Amino acid sequence: MRFKTKLNILLLAGSLLPLFPVNAQKWDELAKTPPMGWSSWNKFARNINEKSIREIADAMVSSGLADCGYVYVNIDDCWHGERDENGNIQCDPEKFPSGMKALADYIHGKGLKFGIYSDAGCKTCAGEPGSLGHEYQDARTYAGWGVDYLKYDWCNTPDQNTKGSYRLMRDALYASGRPILFSICEWGSTNPWEWARDIGHMWRTGGDIGCHFDGYKFYGDWSEHGVMQIVDKNEPLRLYAGPGHWNDPDMLEVGNGMSDNEDRAHFTLWCMMAAPLILGNDIRDMSDATKAILMNKDVIAVDQDPLGIQGWRFYSTDGIEYWFKPLIDGEWALCVFNRTTSTRKVNVVWSDLVTYDNISRRSFKPTREKYKVKNLWTGKYVGFTDNDRVETIPGHDVVLYRLTPVDGDVTAN
Ligand code: GLA
Questions:
Q1: What is the share, in percent, of the chain residues with pLDDT greater than 70?
Q2: Number of structural domains, the chain?
Q3: In a 3-state reduction of DSSP, which class is residue 4?
Q4: From the CA of 126, how far away is ligand 1's center (Å)?
Q5: Which pLDDT does position 24 carry in this prediction?
Q6: Is the CB of 153 under 6 A from ligand 1?
């Protein structure tokens, strides 16, 4: 090969480098357990500003939420201003007069992390500037502001390839040099659980949640999903979730208007599914019941269990569902969920609940081994699995147990 031809090939390869960055990958180690935090969308939608976000950061610490593990303070859609003459994205100067860097510094000063939102298309779902054609530039801007988490939406993306678009932003975030958690939000439209494991840390598995328990609410060309519709979509995907890559059934609606029973069931099922726990209520103003749900450390520990295995619906009969989740050190979580609207008396018969989990490759065999039973919503130990239990469960509510193996043969007692 002549020297000039070789030189041309080298120059061509060099000019393609920004398109195919060397060592592009997602930031590792950012989501070993499901991410926990707060996001503005469910409660505030467009109505956000730096004063309210600072107050949310204050409340995150003063309420005790931060102490429970909630760390991200995320601004969703509608923070944007215009791009400047060089294409740099700016925040809305009226809503955020001190700028995003100052807000991030404030949030970091509280020991919390800062999340932001963009979209892979030309505009966000609310019509704000998207990142299309500005991916590396926006990632650099976010890194400069001190962003720790990016939710990346999928509105206004005709003709775009989903995987390619998300991979491009993943590479841009990596090239920015700042570890930024990447939350994929294409509503499960192209089965991201099959392709996004090396791209994002979590991916939405379905459409937007609404503040209602069962059914859909339709608004012209889009709809809001009830908690039950989201659960039924997310539950079968357990094989795809694990440390660093989580199924995301959407942000929480706890504290936004469902009944306390429904809020408790909603939160418990998210924990059983090892879902990211991103609060969606006004944490500056929470009822005691909402606080008791969101800050139950025993229940949160089910979600955050280091094994990182999503639970599953083991058995369902006449509106009563039994869910299992394997936990570290041979323990299990068992949730009994009353999906009906009326109070039900449920006999928990341990010998009916023998099961095998093909991810942890562990069996739950209460007929052969004895487990100590703790009711996580009352905080009380209620005995052992050598005695069946009778529970009265209100409609749309749960009982949640943590089952700890104890030494000794069950037949000896
Ligand atoms: C989409 C997302 C929501 C929210 C809105 C903002 O609908 O799925 O979670 O981010 O956009 O416009």
A1: 93
A2: 2
A3: helix
A4: 8
A5: 76
A6: yes
Query: 186 CB less than 6 Å from ligand 1?
Result: no
pLDDT digits (tens, 9 = 90+) for 385-408: 999 999 999 999 999 999 999 975
Pairing of strands 312-317, 355-357: unpaired
- pTM assigned to the model: 0.94
198-207: average pLDDT: 98
For 86, list phi and psi in degrees, rounded to 5. Answer: -100, 5
H/E element, 53: helix 50-62
Residue 267's domain comprises 2-303
DSSP E strands in 188-260: the ranges are 202-204, 216-219, 222-225, 246-248
Total number of residues shown for the chain: 413
For residue 178, the CA-to-ligand 1 centroid distance in Å is 25
C-alpha 45 – ligand 1 centre gap (Å): 9
Q: For residue 412, tell me if it sits in a domain.
A: no
Q: Is the CB of 56 under 6 A from ligand 1?
A: no
CA angle 406, 411, 413 (to 5 degrees): 70
3-state secondary structure of 181: strand
Measure the CA–CA gap between 411 and 392, rounded to whole angstroms: 28
Longest dimension (CA), the chain: 87
Spatial separation of the C-alpha atoms in residues 43 and 17, rounded to whole Å: 43
Q: Are residues 399 and 328 in the same domain?
A: yes
Q: Is the pLDDT of residue 116 over 80?
A: yes
